[in-house]
Amino acid sequence: MEPQIELHLLNNRLKILSVNKSAIPKLAYPIVKIAFTNKTNCVFFSFNETNDDYTIIVDNFGFKELSSYISEDDVFYTESNWIPMYLCGEDLPGQSISKIAKYIILPLADWKISIMAISMYQCDYILIQEKDYDAVISCLSHHIPKIYDESLSPENEIVFMKKKGKNYFANKNLPISPSQMIHTGEVPSVATNGRTIHNDNDKQTNGIKSRNITLPLVIPNESEYCITGLYNQDTFLLIIPTLLEIMFYETENYSDEEIFFNFTKKDSDISIVLETKLLKKFPPGTLLNIENDYWKLIRIGKSSVGLEIFGVCASISSPLIKANIDEYYISSYHTGYCFIPSEKLNFAKELFLKQQAIVVCNLPSSETPHRIEGNEEIFEMNDHLHALNNSTNNNNNIIDNGIEFCQAYLSNLKLNTSKTNN
Q: Whose CA is closest to 205, among 66, 50, 323, 284?
């Protein structure tokens, strides 16, 4: 019996940018405009800070907003467009990447197709490169009975369906086979402690491949993380001052700590992944599920992995699926970050070790993240926003005045950014 699930490819084409740590003030104005105001047509925005860089993912509208502030020395981005997609249906047992991995992530790894993943509080998105579109449809048609492409007209958006045991493709040139795909390189391999392991050296157990984990797994010992969303949409403006502080100023004085923060906005859905020690900065009652739902971070690899390597997320997800352990996964420009429930971490470590993984705990950063100091005027505006939210009781006033202050904040950023660029 076919699973009651369907795949939706969204009507968005995304760009993935890597921003040098010292260059983020130059992009502050368009980032704030995209993230916190209704003065943009951008509907998909993800902001991710790690020890390596800032990874920003935006649709073409957002990229247009950012493009005039981009310097070739400070920002790197993918030439190819990426397509976000999500899985839904009655047969999906709950939320987390591990629940959808066997339908999407593992099959695409078998076809040697690279992906990125963005786990939100509300939904998990898998990103594929536009050039792999036909291969993705062909591959996933073996696992998913109905596939929609929302970039097409409503009468044509079903690009694949399985009905009464027969496959129907909208494109008569499909399906293609893995042998028809053009790969940019060899099957990736990674040298680990003097040994080289190829990513296609897998074994089949219980219907799911046991995949060797070829990259070191770095686990900070002390830090715990929370994956959360908004209590309701009216609280968004209440948390803007705190988000600004975390996005632009929080890690200025970090030394050897692991850095990870993610803010993702898709239409009106907002998701935040942050260290639990930062939760106290937010006004009470604004965030969901923050009392005891804590997660441990696992960084995949000590150094940059790159966007073209395939099978990284699959190798981590395979043992977690078998053990029924929930997992969130967020890709950066350089590598991937997996999140495991804190109470399941030791069990997950044992599973990873069985897959030949090398687990490194509490590895310090190789260098202190460098941040340019902000302008006093920007700090002042942030203080005004905090004061506004602490002193206003009427929600309508909060929203009206919040927009006004956010626009003033933007004007300040634009002025100071222009001075910096000149």
A: 323
